[in-house]
């Protein structure tokens, strides 16, 4: 009797046992996929985990339906890494597998398939079954795999679906978790109506009275004859010396057509690789220290101020690794940042660079997966967000974790709730590879590890090219209110500086960490503020659409004319968001171009890219935005950064709020003055003596670290204590309360005063689910494994209580 243990992509058990015959047992290897029946009628794709002839389990095992691979698509190291992840983050291997594999690898009876519109299928290569499915898809926009079963009149259709996918005939529909629009580049071409020579000549004849437009067209012809790749609009504008308005006129006339391409999918076109830059003295020293530190330690932290040239150090380290025949993983906290880096790395390493992230289509992800698995030349350097650490690396030599302090490395939902940086360190360790963490404002955790000898620590203290750090000024708005020096939300100082920058034709970025017009509306007669019906939070006023909206669940309603509680028409808006700043600016600077960058203005497909392009092309004078504007973007002509209100950041109820404020304010400040001219940063606050603001203003990371570390020690938080958060959710308040108290009580037997809560978070109800949290603090000397074992045991007893069966329990290890 032979059996295999199979990992299924579901959150139930670690693995499920199926029976196989002798031939199958000898053919199969861990890491191959099999299609297996599950429950009454479901079919899942699972991963072979173990092959054995141990005693069969007590239940009758089913046999597998089909073997889907001829060789493993998952390596042994990956399986080890995923075991660690399931274990450390307290979830099932199946949940890790589901997060790790492109969904096309996990076809199941619930999968929905669609016709791939990017390719045209050649029907002559189809089997009868494939033909039938293809035909059905021509008539219907999408099919459930269960529909495919009835079309083919049999149960197992996973392999037909798989071959159709491999032939590029179908795509797999995916769930979308995050809102992100990749950076798109804008290109221009002659409209198709004018591509014939005759039409073109006529067109040019009519343009004699529009010499500027004609010049643009002539430049376009010249460029097209010189280069094969499409013409970027930025390039055309520069070369022809035209204004953006001229280009727009040509587009409006229908002479030019614009089209967009996702920047990171544009294949590398360059001929030869550029030599990598020679490092300056400070960089050389730092590089040498890095090398030395890697002799002794596997992990190093590079603490270098913004624009100090950290990336060039990564490049140098990457080059060394490639020469040693090893693969490199370069992780970034956000997809939006990957696009900036790609062209930079491609300049040096050409087509050895691949990109991988969750916003790629399944086809693209499968392609990269296969290239990495086969260790292809074009998969030597992988740039990606956190999910790229799931790739089947062959021989990883170096992992770079850029902006290692960013909270977005942590996955919130669904499980596995892993931290990209920490999981990368474990991955590197399994490969015997080095990890290089880099940041201008390291996380307390990493800095602590570096100071205590766990990581190497290397500094880069000056900006490259002697560019000065921006000058930071704190502006006391309380005092200015008293002296009547405020115009709306702008202090006299802020206006002075804006005026000066605009007079010199420089650009300004203003940061306000809240979107919408005002965070809440209040009745001045009775004090009641309109609340979301689904969440315990006030609705935010959006002036543009005259709506009240919930930022937690998306609920919206028309702005009220009168108070719902007392009926009086004395509604007043409180607080302010990006939209209100934009409105005020338009009144203050009617001749200037004002733009806004936040979740509301970047929803459209190309909206984000267009805003960035406009800023780069100096078509925007002042950009107002949420923390989207803080991300590592590099704009040469921005000399002034204004923070409209630092206090909401500082007062956020979270133990990391101060650390986070420091990082965010330093990061936004880093946008100012990245060239010769020294940049200026103004921070408006009611609390200019706040220690964090003082530390930001003199760029004192060390002092910030010292004080924050003291607080963390005193209040028993990381890096001194580990924490595990357990969240309870239920539609019924009483049940949620009872369940969380029961759980906390059981934990207190073992962990005593180190169990906090249950406590309702600031927003205690979201989407009609009541929430409470229990936090466990774990001293360094307490075994983490034993702690988790106790939690798991309590959870098992909890699940046995019938009354609690509807309550959702979410365990988050090292929560953020
Ligand atoms: P960081 O990653 O620390 O923010 P970057 O690596 O982006 O800094 O460097 C800032 C700027 O300085 C970039 O425009 C980069 O091209 C330039 N730069 C850095 N190092 C060098 C070097 N050795 N030679 C030439 N230019 C450099
Ligand atoms: Zn009222
Ligand atoms: Zn809501």
UniProtKB/TrEMBL annotation:
Named cofactor requirement(s): Zn(2+)
Gene name of the record: priA
Annotated keywords: ATP-binding, DNA replication, DNA-binding, Helicase, Hydrolase, Isomerase, Metal-binding, Nucleotide-binding, Primosome, Zinc
Molecular functions (GO terms): 3'-5' DNA helicase activity; ATP binding; DNA binding; hydrolase activity; zinc ion binding
Keyword RNA-binding: no
InterPro entries: DEAD/DEAH_box_helicase_dom, Helicase_ATP-bd, Helicase_C-like, P-loop_NTPase, PriA, PriA_3primeBD, PriA_3primeBD_sf, PriA_C
CDD domains, per database record: DEXHc_priA, SF2_C_priA
Residue span(s) of domain Helicase ATP-binding: 291-460
Record: residues binding Zn(2+) 2: 532, 535, 550, 553
Helicase C-terminal domain mapped to chain residues: 547-712
Entry's EC annotation: 5.6.2.4
Family assignment from sequence similarity: Belongs to the helicase family. PriA subfamily.
Uppermost EC category: isomerase
Name of the protein this chain belongs to: Replication restart protein PriA
One Pfam family from the record: Zn_ribbon_PriA
Binding site for Zn(2+) 1: 523, 526, 563, 566
Catalytic reaction equation(s): Couples ATP hydrolysis with the unwinding of duplex DNA by translocating in the 3'-5' direction; ATP + H2O = ADP + phosphate + H(+)
Cited SUPFAM superfamilies: P-loop containing nucleoside triphosphate hydrolases
Function: Initiates the restart of stalled replication forks, which reloads the replicative helicase on sites other than the origin of replication. Recognizes and binds to abandoned replication forks and remodels them to uncover a helicase loading site. Promotes assembly of the primosome at these replication forks.
Family annotation (PROSITE patterns): HELICASE_ATP_BIND_1 (PS51192), HELICASE_CTER (PS51194)
Cofactor binding, note field: Binds 2 zinc ions per subunit.
Organism annotation: Rasiella rasia
């Amino acid at each position: 009797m032979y059996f295999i243990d199979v990992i299924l992509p579901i959150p139930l058990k670690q693995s499920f046992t199926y029976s196989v015959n002798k031939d199958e047992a000898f053919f199969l290897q861990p890491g191959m996929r099999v299609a297996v029946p599950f429950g009454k009628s479901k079919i899942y794709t699972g991963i072979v985990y173990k092959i054995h002839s141990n005693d069969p389990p007590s239940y009758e095992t089913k046999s597998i339906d089909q073997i889907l691979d001829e060789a493993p698509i998952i390596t042994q190291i990956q399986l080890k890494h995923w075991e660690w992840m399931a274990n450390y983050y307290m979830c099932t291997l199946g949940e890790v597998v589901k997060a790790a594999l492109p969904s096309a690898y996990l076809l199941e009876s619930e999968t929905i398939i669609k016709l791939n519109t990017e390719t045209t299928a050649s029907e002559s290569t189809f089997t009868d079954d494939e033909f039938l499915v293809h035909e059905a898809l021509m008539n219907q926009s999408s099919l459930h795999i269960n529909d495919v079963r009835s079309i083919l009149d049999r149960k197992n259709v996973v392999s037909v679906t798989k071959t159709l996918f491999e032939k590029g005939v179908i795509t797999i529909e995916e769930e979308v978790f995050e809102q992100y629009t990749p950076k798109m580049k804008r290109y221009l071409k002659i409209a198709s109506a004018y591509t014939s020579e005759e039409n073109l000549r006529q067109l040019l004849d009519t343009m004699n009275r529009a010499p500027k437009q004609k010049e643009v067209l002539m430049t376009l012809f010249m460029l097209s004859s010189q280069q094969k790749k499409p013409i970027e609009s930025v390039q055309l504008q520069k070369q022809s010396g035209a204004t953006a308005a001229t280009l727009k006129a040509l587009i409006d006339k229908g002479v030019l057509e614009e089209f967009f391409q996702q920047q990171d999918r544009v294949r590398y076109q360059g001929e030869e690789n550029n030599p990598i830059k020679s490092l300056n003295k400070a960089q050389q020293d730092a590089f040498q220290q890095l090398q030395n530190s890697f002799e002794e330690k596997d992990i190093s932290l590079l603490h270098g101020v913004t624009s100090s040239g950290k990336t060039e150090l990564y490049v140098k380290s990457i080059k060394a690794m490639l020469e040693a025949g090893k693969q490199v993983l370069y992780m970034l906290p956000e997809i939006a940042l990957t696009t900036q880096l790609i062209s930079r790395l491609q300049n040096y390493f050409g087509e050895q660079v691949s990109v991988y992230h969750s916003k790629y289509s399944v086809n693209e992800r499968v392609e990269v997966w296969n290239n990495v698995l086969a260790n292809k030349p074009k998969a030597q350097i992988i740039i990606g967000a956190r999910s790229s650490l799931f790739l089947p690396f062959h021989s990883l030599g170096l992992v770079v974790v850029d902006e290692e302090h960013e909270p977005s490395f942590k996955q919130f939902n669904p499980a596995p709730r892993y931290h990209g940086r920490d999981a990368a360190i474990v991955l590197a360790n399994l490969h015997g590879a080095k990890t290089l963490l880099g940041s201008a404002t390291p996380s307390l955790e990493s800095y602590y590890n570096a100071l205590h000898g766990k990581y190497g620590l290397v500094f880069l203290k000056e900006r490259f090219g002697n560019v000065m750090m921006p000058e930071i000024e704190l502006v006391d708005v309380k005092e200015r209110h008293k002296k009547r020096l405020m115009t709306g939300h702008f202090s006299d100082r802020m206006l002075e500086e804006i005026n000066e920058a605009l007079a010199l034709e420089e650009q300004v970025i203003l940061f306000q960490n809240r979107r919408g017009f005002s965070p809440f509306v209040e009745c001045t007669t009775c004090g009641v503020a309109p609340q979301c019906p689904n969440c315990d939070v006030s609705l935010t006023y959006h002036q543009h659409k005259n709506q009240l909206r919930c930022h937690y669940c998306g609920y919206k309603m028309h702005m009220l004319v009168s108070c719902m509680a007392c009926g009086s028409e004395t509604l007043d808006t409180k607080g302010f968001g990006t939209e209100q700043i934009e409105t005020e600016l338009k009144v203050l600077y009617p001749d200037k171009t004002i733009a806004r960058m936040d979740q509301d203005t970047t929803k459209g497909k190309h909206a984000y890219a267009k805003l960035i392009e406009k800023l780069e092309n100096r078509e925007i004078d002042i950009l107002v935005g949420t923390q989207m504007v803080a991300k590592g973007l590099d704009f040469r002509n921005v000399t002034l950064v204004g923070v409209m209100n630092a206090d909401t950041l500082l007062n956020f109820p979270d133990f990391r709020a101060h650390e986070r404020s420091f990082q965010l304010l330093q990061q936004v400040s880093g946008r100012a003055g990245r060239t010769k001219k020294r940049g200026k940063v103004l921070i408006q606050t009611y609390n200019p003596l706040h220690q964090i603001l003082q530390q930001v203003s003199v760029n004192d990371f060390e002092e910030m670290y010292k004080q924050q570390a003291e607080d963390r020690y005193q209040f028993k938080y990381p890096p001194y204590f580990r924490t595990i958060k357990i969240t309870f959710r239920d539609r019924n308040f009483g049940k949620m309360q009872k369940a969380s108290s029961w759980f906390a009580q059981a934990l207190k037997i073992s962990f005593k005063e180190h169990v906090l809560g249950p406590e309702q978070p600031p927003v205690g109800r979201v989407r009609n689910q009541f929430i409470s949290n229990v936090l466990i603090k774990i001293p360094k000397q307490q075994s983490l494994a034993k702690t988790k074992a106790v939690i798991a045991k309590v959870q098992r007893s909890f699940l046995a209580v019938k009354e609690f069966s509807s309550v959702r329990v979410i365990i988050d290890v090292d929560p953020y």
